[in-house]
Amino acid sequence: MASRKRRQVPVIVLSSDDELEQIKPASRQMSLSHYLSQSSQGDKRQPLQLSQPPLKKAAIQLTKTTADSSRVGAGATTSTAGTLGTAKQLSDHQAMAAAATAASRPAAEELWIDKHRPKAEADLIVHKKKVAELRGWLEAQASTTSRHAGTLLATGPTGCGKSTCIRVLAAELGYELTEWQPPVPTLWAEHQYQAASGVRYVSKLHAFEEFVSRSKLSSLSLLRSTAAAQPAAEPASQHSQHSQPALRPAPKKIILVDDLPHAGDAEQRHRLADALGELANTARCPVIICVTEAASRSQGERGAGAAASSSQGLHKELMGVLDAAGAAHISFNPFTTPNISKALTRIAAEEGYSLASADVAGMADSAGGDLHNAVATLQLVCTGKAGRPAAPGNAAKKGKGRGRKTKAAEPESTLQSSGVARDQSLTIFHALGKVLYNKREDPDAATAADATAATKSKKAKTGAPARAASQPAAAVRAEGEQDVLARLRGDACETSSACVSVVSERFRRQPLPCDPEAVLTQSGLDASSASSFLHENMLEFLQDCAIEDAAAECGYLSDAGVLMSSFHSGATDWEDGNTAAASMSDAMAGSVVVRGLLFSNTHPAVRRFLALKAPASFTIQRAVAANLEELKALVWRRSLQSMSCFGGSARMFAAEGLPYVRCITALTNSPFIGAMLPARWSSVKDGHIHQQSAAAAAAQTGAVSEMVDSVEQLGLDDEETIEDW
Amino acid sequence: MLWVDKHRPRKLDKLILHKDIGANLKKLVEVGDCPHTLFYGPPGAGKKTLIIALLREIYGPGVEKVKVETRPWKIQLPSRKLELELTTCASNYHVEMNPSDVGNNDRYVVQEIIKDMAKSRPLDIKGQRGFKVLILNEVDRLSKEAQHSLRRTMEKYSQACRLVLCCNNVSKVIEPVRSRCLCIRVAAPQKEGIMEMLQYVAKKEGIELPQPLSSRIADASDRNLRRALLMLETCRVAQLPLTDDQPVQLTDWELYIQEVCNDILAEQTPKQLYLVRGKFYELLTNCIPPELILKRLLICLLRKLDDELKHHAAELAALYEHRLQEGQKAIFHLEAFVAKFMNEYKKWSISMYG
């Protein structure tokens, strides 16, 4: 354990190949010196001498990549002290090194995110109410007399100030913050190398369980995370007293769990849930659990999965455990763009850079509420600027300031040209809302020339899927799209009057405020789940009389269904499938769905709050799969008894045999025929799967025979109509 | 045992329907060399009965001693190792399987099993190496890749094993496979044939079947013999001395679709569409094939429609049935059909009644 703690491996997360080239020399040097520092065991000063140009370059690169690395999860990027200061995970050990580094290194070397970390409550730009809420909780913990300390769950997206807020307030209220220190992630190769020296591998989850069981004891020899310098290895005997609050009034402890182990499968989740529940129930000092909401930043993951399985970034099961333990819950919201720009302006001013307010706004906007990211971006931009006299990005923007409407896109593009800004993302429900509510721009508000140009280009584009949905004109999405868009816009400008008459009245729509494909991309949904979500919810967003819109929407969904499958059957090569073709056809399907829905919804329902539902089709699919399994087993069993008459086809048996078999069993109670009923049958009620045993199913057959009675009437009815016709 | 199973003819010369096919198959076996065969026809026409009778003709009664086993298969692919489970029903002479059970991996499984069978060839009566028969059900549900791989395998291993393919829809079997097989069309029996069969079974069971009832069962069965026999048995269970005017039981899902049909005609709004969607989900959960749902719904609708609308409905149904075959997400296509039809119906009723 001890030897691993000392390892401070620089983890460099690269976002693309060309950066690799740039960073190689730097990283080689670093790892070399790192190696040196390791070989001269225990000399912590060694890394500090690295403050040389290459490191500086590496530091910039690293800053740049923090934006991307945020999704890798803080746990994976245990940083070199002070270089990649995500600073969240700093154990006291690393924090000490960081403090030492900060002391000896010139100020410019430090990351701004650490340098300008708020020191007092007044500096926090987190919403006042949240701060007050947190403060209230902390104060309540101080005054409580109950033996069991409280638990707090702090959730929020990355960089919304959860940890900072907690640290600042804890310090102000005189708490001592104790952080669970997760084991350093070990690579398999590393492990093999170390195994000889007797170091055992400890999984993060296991370490957490161990921590929980230790935290029950008052003689908690946990390591401290506050950078308050003095070595943490206090003799355990010093606070081994059992009645801690009475005898040790001084700094009260708070346990902060900032980095929960990742629980991939059900079994791990179960273990984690147990550990969490135990922690919440038995801990002697207040526990704060910080959880990053992954769902709102669903860049890497499949959006649907994230929405289905996690709320507030935690799995439902874990939430349930914490709720049962009476945990308080504070959810932090992402910072608003003005808040971030204020903070950025302040930092820039303190550093002595002056930035155009539009640039700052652009940075703030592209950060998407992530202050951490915004500050990193700021530092990178400013570092680049130090060499350059003027801000070229600013001048460029003045030049093409026509695109007034795409306010967010313009500064983003200047930043993006320097490769800084992160991709914007949307929450699933935000993205779905954009499509379902079908908000259009008001034509009167739009001003003269360029506005109409934009209108027309969009109109022309919107018309395209309507004319030929199977013809994927709407789906030129990758680089090509920019060209197409530009060309369309150009055409529209030239022949503005002709363009109006091209499309007949019923195909005209008001311009869209957003780009449908961009919405889809930002939401991180693939076509299949996007269409499922939209399908589930679309009917509620239509006026009651608008069946023709519903018909058109359904038609587009059906088109998309075909497009989606064409990549399933067509593009699967002998090997692992043709991914390029697959993603193309997926993109086309997505485009058809989104544009089709936007186009055909001409009678949107009166705007009101409508809860979006998760698609029922997922549950149905699971139920169908379960039933089919049952049936298959059954059909095979039957074919053993007597050469089966259903050709081994489960579906055929469900359609033809099963209803009669049910009837016959209901009427005769013959056990022999009853054996032909499936043992379990799943049905879906209110979005949940219910499994019935054979007995219940038999009871259900009663219902069937009731239905039989009603059928007789229906049957008669039928015959009459037949005679009619 | 259900009557359908109990009274199924086991030998080619005991056939009551499709006697001509039986005679031809018999000749084929006598000649000694049985080609690959492909049986196709609508459900309940007697494909499986013919196949089993054919096997018995070739191998004798031993073929009826079957065992069902679920075996794990480990298949080494170029890039990875595939592990899956597949249930097969096998005797010493034949193996029967449902390749569509394994979804996308069907192509590997078919090849692997055929190779496996080729390894253990049984001896025939004269002490020479004979061939085994592999029965593949639902070939029309096989992916195109699997069908293509089948075509090569059929040639390569034709010494060791003969394929008997069985499917409903022959147009979904690729041309090369069809051309390598002896295609045998098993037509749905005529009403007279079904009535004859019903009387035969009733006689065997020792019950009196009134002619009008048997005629009504034959009508309701849609020329599906299996259904007809199940209906007959249900009638017998419901009431012993069978009477002329006894109701004939339809399946529960068909009645449910009747309800859906009434819903569609009652009101044409998005809300109603939502209701219908719920009912479709219910049907799908019960594993009713979407094609059957659409077909039945169309039949129900056509009964109640004005002539002017019938062709619209049929056209839409044809379009979306095709979509069902091509695409994923059955519910999208079913719902699209209903929505489009509602739209047409609304337009029509407005024009009719103002």
TrEMBL record, chain A:
Bias kind Basic residues: ranges: 397-406
Source species, domain of life: Eukaryota
GO biological process terms on file: DNA damage checkpoint signaling; DNA repair; mitotic DNA replication checkpoint signaling
Record-linked Gene3D superfamilies: P-loop containing nucleotide triphosphate hydrolases
Cellular component, GO annotation: nucleus
Main location group: nucleus
Name of the protein: Cell cycle checkpoint protein RAD17
Keywords: ATP-binding, Cell cycle, DNA damage, Nucleotide-binding, Nucleus
InterPro entries linked: Checkpoint_prot_Rad17_Rad24 (IPR004582), P-loop_NTPase (IPR027417)
Region (Disordered): 24-52, 387-420, 448-477
Comp. bias regions, Polar residues: 28-41
Similarity section: Belongs to the rad17/RAD24 family.
From TrEMBL, chain B:
Domain of life: Eukaryota
UniProt xrefs under Gene3D superfamilies: 1.10.8.60, 1.20.272.10, P-loop containing nucleotide triphosphate hydrolases (3.40.50.300)
GO BP terms, alphabetized: DNA repair; DNA strand elongation involved in DNA replication
Gene Ontology terms: cellular component: DNA replication factor C complex; nucleus
Keyword Iron carried by entry: no
Segments forming domain AAA+ ATPase: 33-192
Chief location: nucleus
Keywords linked to the UniProt accession: DNA replication, Nucleus
InterPro entries given in the database record: AAA+_ATPase, ATPase_AAA_core, DNA_pol3_clamp-load_cplx_C, DNA_Rep/Repair_Clamp_Loader, P-loop_NTPase
Compartments where found: Nucleus
Its biological purpose: May be involved in DNA replication and thus regulate cell proliferation.
Similarity section: Belongs to the activator 1 small subunits family.
Name the UniProt record assigns to this protein: AAA+ ATPase domain-containing protein
